[in-house]
Design goal:
By secondary structure, the protein is α/β, with parallel strands linked by helices. It is built from 13 helices and 13 strands. The strands form two sheets. The protein has an eleven-stranded mixed β-sheet, with helices on both faces. It has a two-stranded antiparallel ribbon with strand order 4-5. Strand 4 and strand 5 form a beta hairpin.
Length: 468
């Protein structure tokens, strides 16, 4: 039943009809994925936990269901990974930290994991993260560094770096990431995959992130349609998250191929304040031209807000301090020193300063809601730079080597506003490293983000790295 070619690289949208026609088996596909892992995971380190036995048992059960014509849900037999910030029943969730006891009982699936399991996804393992997801690169005191498949000397970005590498290399078809300030979109940009941060609350979360008011869960995939399929499942309700939106059953694959003709799209190359590498400016402008050629009404226009770094820092640093407070003091010396710096900064933030940051966050959200009265979508670079050297918090050329926010100016504003935002690959630099186009839409209009991304993908399909 094996189909010629690289089974590990097939998308869910390619696998599922072939399962249905009995041209492929979930067992064959899982074997191909594990062969890819055996060949390349040691060099790139996208996983902190694999369970071959459990995954194979699930693949065999899926195969039996497909053979009998009774698949379970909408993703039956698709290889899937879970970021190690997200609870997964029976497996330790160590969050990249030496402060977590792996020996405790692990009795619950987080909502997104539970929904994917209910739809038959074959969950193969946990992907790497920096400690508690505090930074936008992917190394931790517990797991060491994850590397970029386009150049292993470079970072894949973070904090969902392991998930991005799994997606880019065929070590996982569907991959759950989290994004509190860019943690899906940064590594999606650096590794050349599609990553979506949905509207806040669309995907239920439990337990809530210590950075709860800006933290989202979303799909990281090799195609836009796969992300839409994954979002259909992840958005199903779970009462454990009281922040979650009222559930409205929706199929995000419907309308995906409507194109962008007549859509009003703003292009902002700097948001009015960011410094961006020249090659990236060129590639993002070309991507906007592709959409204009398809009939979109593209207008160069900054959204008109000031740099919100200080607003985000008040949220992020306070979250780090609150996280540290939840860990026994005798374990604090085990933290990543950078996380300790952020927590110290959070401890220095007074309650009135924090409340003011919340007010400013709301004002920014209203500003963007008004902006989207005119524009259906906003395009920006996902990142102002391409991937830099591994084992650094910031590029060597940046004066502040401890704060990742200074080199990721396009991502965290849209965590503050809780809008849907995605990174779509739009070319590579002269050094061969991927560049991302960020697509942002009004709150609750995740369908618009997916539609614009799919239109671009139809003209420029996602390219995967050569693994040799």
């Amino acid at each position: 039943m094996r189909r010629p070619g690289p089974l590990a690289d097939l998308s869910a949208s390619e696998l599922l009809p072939r399962y249905r026609r009995k041209e492929l088996s979930p067992v064959d596909v899982l074997q191909a994925v594990f062969a890819r892992i055996d060949g390349h995971a040691a060099a790139l380190h996208p996983f902190c936990h694999l369970d071959r036995e459990a995954a194979m048992a699930d693949a065999l059960a899926s195969e039996a269901r497909w053979w009998s014509g009774k698949p379970q849900g909408s993703l039956d037999g698709v290889p899937t990974t879970v970021k190690d910030l997200i609870l997964t029943k029976g497996w330790p969730t160590l969050r990249g930290s030496r402060t977590i006891d792996p020996g405790q009982p692990w009795l619950e699936d987080a909502p997104a994991v539970a929904r994917l399991r209910e739809h038959g996804a074959v969950i193969i393992g946990k992907t790497t993260t920096p400690e508690f997801g505090w930074k936008a690169v992917c190394d931790s005191p517990l797991e060491g560094a994850t590397r970029n498949p386009w150049n292993p000397l470079m970072t894949p970005g973070g904090s969902s770096g392991g998930a991005a590498v799994a997606a880019a290399t065929g070590m996982g078809c569907l991959n759950i990431g989290t994004d509190g300030g860019g943690s899906i979109r940064v590594p999606a940009s650096f590794t050349g995959i599609f990553g979506l941060k949905p509207t806040f609350g669309l995907v239920p979360a439990y337990p809530l992130s210590p950075f709860a008011r800006v933290a989202h869960l979303g799909p990281m995939t090799r195609s836009v349609e796969d992300a839409a399929r994954m979002l259909n499942v992840m958005a199903e309700p779970d009462v454990r998250d009281w922040h979650s939106l009222p559930y409205i059953k929706r199929d995000y694959t419907l309308g995906l191929n409507q194109g962008v003709a007549g859509m009003r799209i703003a292009l902002s190359l700097t948001l009015g304040y960011a410094k961006v590498d020249r090659e990236i400016l060129t590639l993002v402008r070309r991507a906007a031209d592709v959409l204009a050629d398809q009939g979109a009404l593209v207008e160069e226009c900054d959204p008109g807000f000031e740099d919100p770094t200080s607003i985000f820092e008040a949220h992020w640093f306070s979250g780090a301090a609150n996280l540290r407070r939840s860990i026994p003091r005798e374990k604090w010396e085990l933290f990543d020193p950078g996380l300790t710096r952020f927590a110290d900064a959070g401890d220095a933030i007074g309650h009135l300063e924090y409340l003011r940051a919340m007010d400013l966050c709301g004002a920014l959200g209203m500003h963007m809601a008004l902006f989207h009265q005119k524009y259906d979508a906003l395009l920006t670079p996902s990142m102002p730079i391409a991937a830099f050297e591994v084992n650094r918090v910031a590029p060597a050329s940046f004066p502040d080597q401890h704060n990742w926010l200074h080199w990721s100016p396009f991502s965290y504003p849209f965590n503050l506003t809780q809008q849907p935002a995605a990174s779509m690959p739009c070319g590579r630099t002269s050094a061969g490293m991927p560049v991302g186009l960020q697509i942002v839409a009004a709150k609750y209009r995740d369908d618009q983000v997916l539609r614009v991304a799919r239109a671009y993908e139809s003209a420029a399909p996602i390219e995967l790295p050569s693994l040799g």
